[in-house]
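Shipment paperwork, digital attachment
Item: protein structure file
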Amino acid sequence: MEFSEALRAMKSGACLTRTSWTEPGKYVYWRPATTVRTPDGLVRHFVGHAVFVRPHKGESGFAEPWLPSFDALAGDDWAVVDVKPS
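Attachment content:
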């Protein structure tokens, strides 16, 4: 699927991967907007954003905010992946 479809699927709760990613287990998902209280005591609003998960990086894996590259935006190899808790 193309990125526009992938983004809609992520915002609906799906986890996605690309068939061109060679490391198994990588995926992205959408984290909706949230509100938190920061150490300065103020309430801050975080916008929704994509999170990139690399389960084989480090001892317990790695997750980070993700900004798609041009390659990711132009890619048509996005696929829904079923992520099961370990």
